[in-house]
Amino acid sequence: MSGRVILTCGEPAGIGPELAPLALDSGVDFVWMGDPRHLPAGTDWAEIATADTRAAPGKLPVLRHDFAAPTLPGRPDPANATGVIEVIARAVDLVMQGKAAAICTLPINKQALKEGAGFAFPGHTEYLAHLAGNLPVAMMLASTTVTPPCRVVPATIHIPLSQVPTTLTPDALEQAIRITHAALIRDFGIPTPRIAVAGLNPHAGEGGTMGREERDWMRPLLDRLRAEGMALTGPLPADTMFHAPARATYDAAICAYHDQALIPIKTLDFAGGVNVTLGLPFIRTSPDHGTAFDIAGQGRADPASTIAALRMARDMASKRGA
Questions:
Q1: 180-221: per-residue pLDDT in tens?
Q2: Who has the most CB within 10 Å: 32, 78, 164, 215?
């Protein structure tokens, strides 16, 4: 297998095309996949024929994928939506064939993809799971610049808050815990993972006075998994889980819903956070930010999260022996 990481272009009207050349100093062997017309003017790039072909030092290696139209920063063109989707699928195909070690995806814009190509998935995570054969997956956000590290996994993701209490079932929480436990061993090299589980309600229900989910089914579920040998704590009050002394007691936190997980990590490590899809047969990371249409094309894009995501993809591939 090639040890190279494929960096997919993402939404070409966002900051993704600017981030690719800025990431050349990451120390990671990667190739960018997309339409070179979308790269910033003056980018020193070289087209390569295969994922493991080398380019001259200092040049951005490009696996060319022609899109329907050029792009204007900050203004997504529906004509390019199909190209964005095709690049993701092509990258997955290459890594599944063993022609690359991992994928790092630059941000997409779900609205643009839906309007331009009828994209039927809530986001990258769900589409990648579909491409992998509809496997159960989990989304982890992992810090890279804070100590102790902050790793969070929301058990429910892109749904309205009103739907969380019914979507967060015992099966859904157990699945998130098992996927996270396996990934911490395989991809992060932690032989005995410690996992903290947040409650759904304020104060983790406070004995049933602020909600009964913790008492009625979350605690029994965790007790059963502990009996299997998993090192689990919880359900815990989410408001006391993310200061440094608390983070030192666990390797990852499972949260009940999207914002319960993402607010702490984006507060602690906004520029260094990395999105990781757990449970896939291949490695996928992504910078923990969006397309940033408001600053696209202005030379203000910060590559820190992209560089962190590339490095994490490389390190995870090394753990898997890729």
A1: 999 999 999 999 999 999 999 999 999 999 999 999 999 999
A2: 32
**Long-range contacts of range 314-321, CB-CB < 8 Å, 24 or more positions apart?**
314/3, 314/5, 314/28, 314/29, 314/101, 314/102, 316/102, 316/187, 316/188, 316/276, 316/283, 316/285, 317/3, 317/5, 317/101, 317/102, 317/283, 319/186, 319/187, 319/188, 319/189, 320/186, 320/187, 320/283
Q: What are the residue ranges in the chain where pLDDT is below 50?
A: 1
Please state, in angstroms and rounded to a whole number, the distance separating the CA atoms of residues 239 and 291: 30
Say if strands 151-154 and 138-142 run parallel, antiparallel, or are unpaired: antiparallel
Q: Measured over all CA atoms, what is the biggest interatomic distance in the chain, rounded to whole angstroms?
A: 65
Domains of the chain listed by start with CATH number:
1-136+280-322 (3.40.718.10), 146-268 (3.40.718.10)
- Cα 236–209–239 angle (5° rounding)? 30
Question: Which contacts (CB < 8 Å, 24+ apart) does range 237-240 have?
Answer: 237/198, 237/199, 237/202, 237/203, 237/204, 238/198, 238/199, 238/204, 239/202, 239/203
Q: Tell me, what's the pLDDT at 322? A: 58
- Cα separation, 92 vs 98, in Å, equals 10
| DSSP assignments along 251-289, one per residue | SEEEESSHHHHHHHHHHH-TTT-EEEEET-SSEEEEESS
How many of the other CB atoms lie within 10 Å of CB of 127?
21
Give the DSSP letter string of 27-75.
S--EEEEE-GGGSPTT--EEE-SSTT----TTSEEEEE---SS--BTTB
- Which helix (H) or strand (E) covers residue 140, if one does? strand 138-142
Neighbours of 164 (CB within 10 A): 18
